[in-house]
Amino acid sequence: MATQHSRAAARLMMAPAVILLLGWMLVPLILTLYFSFKRYLPLRGDSLGKGLDWVGFQNYARFVTSSSFWPSIQVTLIIVGGVLVVTVLLGTLLAVLLDQPMWGTGIVRILVISPFFVMPTVSGLVWKNMFMDSTNGLFAHLWRAFGAAPVDWVSQQSLFSIILIVSWEWLPFATLILLTAIQSLDSEQLEAAEMDGAPALKRFWFIVIPHLSRAITIVILIQTIFLLSIFAEIYVTTAGAFGTKTLTYLIFQRVLESQNVGLGSAGGVYAIILANIVAIFLMRIVGKNLDA
User: Fold this and answer.
1) Matching CATH number, 68-291, of 3.40.50.970, 2.60.120.650, 1.20.1250.20, 1.10.3720.10
2) N or C: which end of the chain has fewer CB within 10 A?
């Protein structure tokens, strides 16, 4: 049993890492809040004279009343929802298949995991140029082989293209989590159900899916946190055009393209609020499975 002295020593040894971590998180947050109340235009000619004027909530009002604000929120939620549906459904199916005894399982698992280690910018460029290009892309050649006109995916099916690219990146993560959960399932339950005459579909629906509920919850929570800040795939494919401008990309435009750090900082605060609202909603709806 840990003594009072050993617990104090453990806290003392952990203190530098905790302080560093808090500073790493809090300093950018505090600066974002500070600049969001300022008229900060560091790359414009008037930055020396009025670069740090206090403007109160003016940046927040300008950002939320922008014609691009609510559409960017909608696009963000559509992409997050679409990717979650694809990765959870396909991840479950892949996990079930990979759990079956077959030759070359190790090689297949490595191939399934590999997209997770590809950088988002590389994934976006590969899909845009090698698969979705309307002239030389793989999809274009397949369409021509069947006598159909090639589709310009980036402009004509832009949102679907982004969802497809991001789903390809996150599918390995969902598959690994769900595969681990399936492998922890007691095989005796499935064997008993099979002996009782339950068909494979019912065994999957009434035994496997309930067992995966906690793993699915973890996948949804973790992926949502990261997907709300999706940026690189959009930047290298559509550049925010064709209705793919997310909240993160809108903030990027305000900070770098419009060179308005104060306005972009206000957008960053809105992004934090959105992430917390979504996280609370998910914890209330699906997070109860973690306590089951």
Assistant:
1) 1.10.3720.10
2) N
